[in-house]
UniProtKB/TrEMBL annotation:
Originating organism: Oncorhynchus kisutch
Pfam families per UniProt: Arrestin_C, Arrestin_N
Similarity comment: Belongs to the arrestin family.
Protein name: Arrestin-C
Role description: May play a role in an as yet undefined retina-specific signal transduction. Could bind to photoactivated-phosphorylated red/green opsins.
Annotated ranges, domain Arrestin C-terminal-like: 191-354
UniProt keyword Flavoprotein, yes or no: no
One MF term in the entry's GO annotations: G protein-coupled receptor binding
Alphabetic keyword roster: Sensory transduction, Vision
Any one annotated GO CC term: photoreceptor outer segment
Annotated SMART domains: Arrestin_C
Gene: ARR3
Length: 360
């Protein structure tokens, strides 16, 4: 059997088993969440065992809950009664069958189907001095002992629970369209001549950590001098649930000392690589959901399908590449009379689909 993830309640009465913690969104379908709960009925005292799968948005640390502020908003939640068993259940998966043999007569299988319109796991990077759990969207499987599935009057003791955080992830599609192109022509005061700038990327989508070649064409018809070329990549994050909050953070900023004199041209490709490792200090930067302290990367672009409710996504992430030319007049005052010529290109960042993930 492959690696198994297990959490046991503080009183030892229940244990939660999962065969994996990453569940793939294939656009039309999402991997089912299949697991097993081992139940020792000796300490239940007439209570029942339940399990839920919740997609939640966390917008504060646990400390806020101590002063009566709700720091977690459930976007979607499903519950099942595990013990005593009720109703009919779907056929067991091979992983569940293996675990049920391990748990013998105390094992009980459960299966959840995640809605396709729910967001992928994403977090907002905390500052180095921040403590507690980061803001973001996460998924939690939790088994618990209680009289009712969701009675607000019933207080559930922490020792009667066990939980595992899982991730809903999405990989790049198999077919990647051609990349965008943008151009601009700008004239300057007291001159009818133009500076033409064209920028393009080969593909619409690039994988995290891969080099991104940005092709730049400049036709400088003026007497001015292009002193340098600056390429930046911005991440725009829109937080939809607790307030209308939209902000942009630069994840890459590189300058190239390419001088294009008056009445001359330049055609060159500049390679850039946006990396989370170069942005570790930026609080609020969106990153792909992580499990414990494992490494992650910049958040993948949010793909909005037709008919999808944007409000259900919790956090929307988008990227754009900006190419700017610093154009000066030359001479002693050139630096004081410089101006920009710039274009923007949309960029999609995602993770590649591993070879062992089947195509849906």
């Amino acid at each position: 059997m492959a690696k198994i993830y297990k959490k046991t309640s503080g009183n030892g009465s229940i244990a939660l088993y999962l065969g994996k913690r990453d569940f793939v969104d294939h656009v039309e379908t999402v991997d089912i969440v299949d697991g097993v709960i081992k139940v020792d009925p000796a300490e239940l005292e007439g209570r029942k065992v339940w399990v839920y799968l919740a997609c939640s948005f966390r917008y504060g640390s646990d400390d806020l809950d101590l002063i009566g502020m709700n720091y977690r908003k459930d976007i979607w939640i499903q519950r099942q009664q595990i013990y005593p068993a009720v109703g009919t259940k779907p056929a067991n998966t091979p992983m569940q069958e293996a675990l049920l043999k391990k748990c013998e007569d105390q094992g009980h299988a459960f299966t959840f189907n995640i809605d396709t319109n729910l967001p992928c796991s994403v977090g907002l990077q905390p500052a180095p001095e921040d403590v507690g759990k980061a803001c973001g969207v996460d998924y939690e499987v939790k088994a618990y002992i209680a009289n009712e599935a969701d009675d607000p009057e019933e207080k559930i003791n922490k020792k009667d629970t066990c939980r595992l955080i899982i991730r809903k992830i999405q990989f790049a599609p198999g077919t990647i369209p051609a990349g965008p192109q943008a151009d601009i022509s700008k004239n300057f005061m007291m001159s009818d001549k133009l500076v033409h700038l064209e920028a393009s990327i080969e593909k619409e989508l690039y994988f995290h950590g891969d080099p991104i070649p940005v092709k730049v064409k400049i036709n400088n018809e003026t007497a001015k001098v292009v002193k340098k070329i600056k390429i930046t990549i911005d991440q725009t994050t829109e937080v939809l649930l607790y307030q209308a909050d939209k902000y942009t953070k630069t994840v890459l900023n590189e300058e190239f000392a390419e001088e294009v004199k008056g009445e001359s041209t330049l055609e060159k490709t500049f390679t850039v690589i946006p990396l989370l490792s170069n942005n570790k200090e930026k609080r609020g930067l969106a990153v792909d959901g992580r499990l414990k302290d494992e490494d992650t990367n910049l958040a993948s672009t949010t793909l909005i399908r037709p008919g999808m409710d944007k409000g259900m996504q919790g956090i929307l992430v988008a990227y754009k590449i900006k190419v700017n030319l610093l154009v000066s007049s030359g001479g002693l005052l050139g630096g004081l009379t410089a101006s920009d010529v710039g274009v923007e290109l949309p960029l999609v960042l995602m993770s590649p689909k591993p070879a062992d993930v089947p195509v849906e």
